[in-house]
Every structure is written in C-alpha cells, then in structure tokens.
Amino acid sequence: MPRTDVDNRLSSTGLPRTAPDMESGLGRIMQSLIRETHAEQSNLTDWEFNAVCDRIIELLCMMLLGDMGPQQSHLTETAAAVRQYVREHIGVGDLHLPAVASALGWSPRQLRFALQQTGTTYRQVRQDEALRAARDLLSQPGKTTTIGEVAARCGFTQTWFSQVFKARYGETPRDFQKRRSREFTDRLASGIEEPHPA
After folding, report:
1. Is 65 within 8 Å of 15 (Cβ atoms)?
2. pLDDT > 90: percent of the chain
3. What is the pTM of this model?
4. 149, 161 contact by CB (below 8 A)
5. What is the DSSP letter of 1?
6. Would you state the pLDDT for residue 17?
7. What's the mean pLDDT in 117-129?
8. How many CB atoms lie within 10 A of CB 129?
9. b/e code 74-111 from CB counts within 10 Å (16+ = b)
C-alpha cells in the first residue's frame, strides 16, 4: 500500500497525520484484512487485488479522519427505500421488520440503525405508510369499503385505527370517508371530474 496514496487522499484536509490504533477495534480488523489480502494475492487477479487495496486505503483514510459513520445521503436513500417497500406491500405482504429487511437485502439491525439515524423508527414508518394507504382507500369514490376492512387491510385493529387516524388527520375515519364522499358527490353535481389516482 503506497504511502503516497494515503498522503494524496489526506492532503486536502489539512489535518495532522496521526497513526491509527491498529491493536483494537477497527484497526485490528484492518490489520487482519491487510495480512489476509497479502496472503491471498497469488489467488487474485491484479484487478481484484488492486480493488481490495483501494478499499483498504479508503477505510484507512476514514479511520485517520475519524469519519466512520454512514453518509447521510445513503441513510436518506435507505429510509426512502423502506418507505416505498412498505407502501407497495401494505395489505399484500409480510411487513414485519425481519421480512422487510430481508427483502431489501439488509439485516434488521442495519435497517433499524439507518432509520434511527434519519430520525425515525421502523414502527413509525410502517404506521405512517399504513395511515396513508388507509386515507387513500377511504378517499376512493363510490367504494363501499367498511372502516373495519380498511383497518384490517392496513394492519390495524378498528379501535386503534380510529385513534391513530384521528390523531394524524384530525377526524375519525368514518367522518373522513363521509366528507370525501360528499365532496365527490358535490363535484359530480357541479360537473367537475374527480382526478384518477396515480
């Protein structure tokens, strides 16, 4: 691992060069990774060996800079992917945390951590998306879906559903459904078409 590679990556920071602790934690893992990569060099193509060495240099630079946390943009993308997955599978798939994490290729711990770093929890994401789905179902004109059916489809008991829906939207699911129905009827009477859901 040429020292110039490390120096070049750190030169723009202006930080003093300090030796990382290679005897414990991530340093010990790095040291083991370096030894194992060197031992396996003959079994790797030049491209593979160089790619591994580049990653080792990046990790070493991150250690020197103290920048070991995940990037905020990655965390935001992760949270968005979780929301989208939950939204698409409400009422049609297993939305328990381990199943969602597995479907997205992460461990439950990684998923929990990423959401925590963006200021939310999986439980909150699931509830948010379930309430959005419920609101959309209750807004559909001409449908005779009962409150109990909407609650069950979105993963709520009827009592809990009424409480959280009212806390979020300021009215009970029944009042919301009636109001949307009246609005739809008024639009039809005045000749304004209801926009089709996307």
Report:
1. yes
2. 25
3. 0.59
4. no
5. -
6. 55
7. 91
8. 22
9. ebeebbebbbebbeeebeeeebebeebbeeeebeeeeb
Contacts of 172 (CB under 8 A, 6+ apart): 162, 165, 166
Name which residue leads in pLDDT, 16 or 150: 150
Q: How far apart are CA 12 and CA 34, in angstroms?
A: 25
d(CA 147, CA 157): 10
Q: State how far the Cα of 139 lies from the Cα of 161, in Å rounded to an integer.
A: 16
Give burial (CB, 10 Å; 0-12/13-18/19+) of 32: exposed
Question: Which residue pairs, CB below 8 angstroms and at least 24 apart, start in 36-42?
Answer: none
DSSP letter, residue 194 = P
State the Cα–Cα distance between residues 67 and 16, nearest whole angstrom: 15
In whole angstroms, give the CA distance from residue 89 to residue 107. 19
Amino acid at 186: D
The answer to whether 169 touches 176, Cβ cutoff 8 Å, is: yes
- pLDDT tens across 144-182, in order? 778 999 999 998 988 899 999 999 999 999 999 888 888
Predicted local distance difference test score (pLDDT) of residue 9? 55
| Secondary structure (3-state) at 14 | coil
CATH class of 127-198: mainly alpha
> How many of the other CB atoms lie within 10 Å of CB of 190?
7
